[in-house]
């Protein structure tokens, strides 16, 4: 069943940077066909891979096809059109059968430990021995899920920043017993899909991107609840300053440059005390009824005139233009 | 001395969106010729305005000219080349004389209340009655500085996100007694320079952008100090996820879209409890000796191979490409 050459594609990190058209097709199993599962499906299909979607819900095939239609323009704009994929996409509600013959399993089941443990025990029992095991979970440690496996070294978190077909980041978070080989293969696989995987050195709740996002959002809520700015005004401040900055240079690099010739050490030396003082002044709001009502009212007023789907398409189109702009020039082909 | 038409340029908000080449020259006084003062100077000159830099330090003229040379490529890339400005740039160490005949005063003195109060008392005593008064302070409320003025309604904070010649945001923060007219004129002036001014509804320490930046940075420090990721890895996570997002859509819009058709209300309803739980798990690091040593060591290792100035030029070039990408298409010229 398994052509050994086929699995080399994502077991060899040095192949990852190659243009994906040359890469052989990977047989993927996407477990769970919700928003995240559909987005992974689009990404895998756009890279020429095979996808078996496993989701017990009735009408899942129509749902996935409709989702792919919605994603198609974004994939085309990304230079990865969703073409002639019908024969590469199959549906198999039974998880055991869905993973038979899979080279890679990306699981997007409900965020409940008991369900994930059950799913993964089934997957392990039926997937080929070489298959890569990744869970999209945004919050459950691989260590906890892998407790249900006979070979816990095979499972790793591959948490995408939503939606996976678009945003480059995939947080690769090994559990206590995940093997370095699994991590390496996951990184190579995601990289072959044009993603920017980042391996975390420690399992922490929420991983990194969502923790950072929630830290910023807490102060956003504090400032709006305090009446300093409205939600839309705050958004305008972010997109015209720190958002622009952090799209091209992260917080540490930004402050390194903010330190002048002395870099970050100079910055911390001169502004560290001020930063600590500021930290002590940050708001600690709760999402109580009154705050939720205020934020909802402002969102309705500022964003409610147009359907969310239209705003999303607009945002994603801008996002893609920006990604094209920031993408490094392709290397000169060697003779 | 004063041609009334000249001051209309920034007293009439409806003129702000016009292409600036048509706007008459404004006579600006830039008080304090440090990094921020030089950056404002470049921006004002690139828009055809006159600038008198007032700074008592010896050699300030050479310093400013050198600074302008460094900024020139960025202004050219922004489509606002710094050309033939020599006759529009003068130096006058005496503040009283520097503001005589100024239409707009942008003060960038040391961040000390006593010094700023002294400076502004002098400025008020010698500037024309129509002159716009703005301070670049990042932390001192206009209310406190304006206590030294006979007409406190004239002073407003115009806090740029560094550097002002490049980053669009200017936080316009009125003090308790700042007049609506002053706020309106400041907004129109900054808009005429291609900036994105945002008026705050309340004076809070650190204003908005720096508070948000410090909230995110606190969690950055926590995660690096905890060994979850290195500084450079954290930066890569930001630029490949939330940074990209926030360059095109702020945090509220992002979560509005994250709520699906139900928008932010649905998002808060479904994820609010999880967010609050996450807030309680955020790190509360201090910048103690050990943490500063760790961050400095990582910055040196990850960014130290190249001079800060080179990294800065590279970052700013990427920033400008991104701004061009995100800039809305110019309106079709009317016949």
Automatic annotation (TrEMBL), chains A, B:
Residues 206-273 form the 3-hydroxyacyl-CoA dehydrogenase C-terminal domain. Residues 12-23 have a biased composition (Low complexity). This is 3-hydroxyacyl-CoA dehydrogenase family protein. PROSITE patterns: 3HCDH (PS00067). Residues 1-23 are annotated as: Disordered. Belongs to the 3-hydroxyacyl-CoA dehydrogenase family. It comes from the Bacteria.
């Amino acid at each position: 069943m398994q052509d050994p050459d086929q699995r080399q594609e994502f077991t060899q990190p040095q192949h990852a940077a190659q243009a994906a058209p040359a890469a052989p097709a990977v047989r993927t199993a996407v477990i769970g066909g919700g928003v995240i599962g559909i987005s992974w499906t689009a990404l895998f299909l756009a890279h020429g891979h095979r996808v078996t979607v496993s989701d017990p819900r009735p009408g899942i095939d129509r749902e996935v096809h409709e989702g792919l239609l919605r994603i198609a323009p974004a994939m085309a704009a990304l230079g990865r059109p969703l073409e002639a994929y019908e024969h590469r996409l199959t549906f198999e509600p039974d998880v055991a059968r869905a993973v038979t013959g899979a080279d890679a399993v990306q699981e997007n089941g409900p965020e409940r430990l008991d369900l994930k443990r059950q799913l993964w025990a089934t997957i392990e029992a039926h997937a080929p021995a070489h298959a890569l095991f990744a869970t999209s979970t945004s919050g459950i440690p691989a260590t906890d899920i892998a407790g249900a496996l006979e070979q816990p070294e095979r499972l790793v978190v591959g948490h995408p920043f939503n939606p996976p077909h678009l945003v480059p980041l995939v947080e690769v978070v090994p559990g206590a017993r995940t093997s370095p080989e699994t991590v390496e293969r996951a990184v190579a696989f995601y990289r072959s899909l044009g993603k920017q995987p980042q391996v975390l050195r420690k399992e922490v709740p929420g991983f990194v991107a969502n923790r950072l996002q929630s830290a910023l959002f807490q102060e956003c809520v504090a400032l709006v609840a305090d009446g300093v700015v409205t939600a839309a005004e705050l958004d305008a401040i972010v997109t015209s300053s720190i958002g622009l900055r952090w799209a091209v240079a992260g917080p540490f690099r930004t402050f390194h440059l903010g330190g002048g010739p002395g870099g970050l050490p100079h910055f911390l030396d001169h502004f560290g005390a001020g930063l600590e003082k500021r930290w002590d002044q940050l708001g600690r709001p709760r999402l109580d009824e009154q705050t939720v009502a205020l934020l909802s009212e402002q969102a309705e007023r500022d964003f409610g005139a147009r359907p969310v789907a239209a705003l999303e398409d607009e945002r994603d189109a801008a996002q893609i233009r920006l990604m094209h702009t920031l993408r490094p020039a392709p290397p000169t082909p060697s003779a």
